[in-house]
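input
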Amino acid sequence: MKISDKIKTRAKKMVSEMTLEEKCSQLRYDSPAIDRLGIPAYNWWNEGLHGTARGGTATMFPQAIGIAAAFDEELTERIAEIIGKETRIKYNYYSAKGDRDIYKGLTIWSPNVNIFRDPRWGRGHETYGEDPYLTGLLGSAYVRGLQGDGEYMAASACAKHFAVHSGPENLRHEFDAECGNKDLHETYLYAFKKLVQAGVTGVMGAYNRVNGEPACAHTELMKILREDWDFDGYFVSDCWAIQDFHLHHKVTSDFVSSAALALKKGCDVNCGCSYAYILQAYNDGLVTEEEIDRSVRKLFEIRLALGMFDSTEYDSLPYSAVDGKEHNAVSLEAAQKSMVLLKNDNVLPIKKEKGKVIGVIGPAADNREALKGNYYGTSSHYTTYLQGIQAACDEAEMTVLYSEGCDYSKDRTECLAQPYDRISEAVITAENSDIVILCVGLNEHLEGEEGDTGNEYASGDKESLLLPESQQRLIKAVLDTGKPVVVVLSAGSSVNINDDRANALICTWYAGPHGGKALADIIFGEISPSGKLPVTFYKDTEKLPEFTDYSMKNRTYRYIEDNSNVLYPFGYGLTYSDFACEILSAEKTEKGVKVKISAENKGNCDSGEVIQLYLHTDDENAPLSPWLCGVKRFFLGQGESIVLEIEIENDSFDIYGEDKVYRKEKYRIFAGFGQPDGNTAATEIQI
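output
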């Protein structure tokens, strides 16, 4: 949103009444009260990536990568609207008790719109995947939903981490991400620009340097953000990133000079302790009072735009809405739409028959960690995969056998036992079952943020795309029984189970508290799966560029050069039905090109699907593969058809060179349910 002149005038007046010391204190993320002016304390740090997080009970949704897999702009906006509403309710009730602690404010430091360029990055599951268009589309929907369209924002969204940031985690405090102008604008900045256009009111800087300058005090990036894009919100450092200037990047000498550099370049609020030195920086002549005022005014513009000093339309929201039935119904819907069926040898859906025995095996089967991801909230109710299957089987008078099978990563589940102490039990369970649901994967301790995981060998990143040895042994032992096996993969990134004998493979991501019910609904055919991969699944990392290489050459589906290393492609996902589509027309408009597509469900099952539009043109600077430019999720009963309209925006036709952005005269448009192949509908358009 744009800050109104009225709010800017109020903010300027409030700041003019503060002493210099008071103004400096407000630049900290944990801003103290100024009692004489009636200004309460405020903590800027709150999280809401997939539900209001870390501040008590709230509705939790699938992890961001799972939300992305739904390919559903409207659903993402509804999810964010709920997060904003619950954040506001909790703020109202907490502040009424005088509780203004961390994770209880209205400034949500989400979404993460970094590009998941490398499957080794541990934080990739916080993002919307590897494609700039999809990331910008869903990130913008999150901004609209969270902030709302009323007189005051429900909550404030924050696009992070600006910019060129996607690992390695263990180097992030000292790393210099080097990239050319083409990759910078085409890939790394694209989604941020879209979120600014959508009205995002916060931007968080990254830990790393970008082409030599720290991202939180970067001359070019700040110019692009503030001048080129006309960003009108506040800029916050990543947490303790400013001290990296002198401790690790070595571009300054101490806390005082680091704080001065960040403030002068345009960082308004510091998550960390460096801005405790702003007053000293002023006394040393390193910053001016005008520069201090500029940032303090910006922070109070945001607080005023949130209605913190006024009565708002949100004041009467009831606490009973938090984690309520209506909101949890959306969480279940998101889980159902996010799960991606990658393989199915006609073993799914499983027909319910009285007396049938279902074996549920694996460390992710009855574990809440398989549902959460990171930056999660606290749900009042969880249904694990085992519990969801048990509930469905109880109704049909079917038997469920269960074995943990192994630990996530350790070689035993009991400390005094021999290695692989649950393998024999898993084999016995499989042998006595008609079909096996084998639940494996990762969790926030095996992939995540540096310092937040127990994965100290890689600081949260993955060294391999394979599962830990304990799970590899379990998979082999269960498949060796010869029983029909459905592998359920709970992870936030590309994983290779390294055994193609499974009859079916479902990627559930971190599906949220209702993941167990969603999975049961899919495997027993109550609904059809309809999720799509927002990232490429690779066979291994040997054919990928070095993790520290930020060039997009041979990265993601757009620039991959060796398709033999692709296990499952971006945009891929099966349903239980059979769909067909046709491009009816493609017409130029003021905003771009409007494409009209007919879609038909020709199969024997009601199902959701996702139309995906791709563009391509012959040019040395164009991506190697057709690039995503439009999506539309829909639902059809068997035998039904629909006509859909999708507008390809003008900037989707942009071709990025190192020194210019231009368009070609002719493009090819593809429409289908995944990346273009021999069966994809296509047409040409003259621009």
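quick obs: Residues 579-686 form a domain with the Immunoglobulin-like fold (CATH 2.60.40.10).
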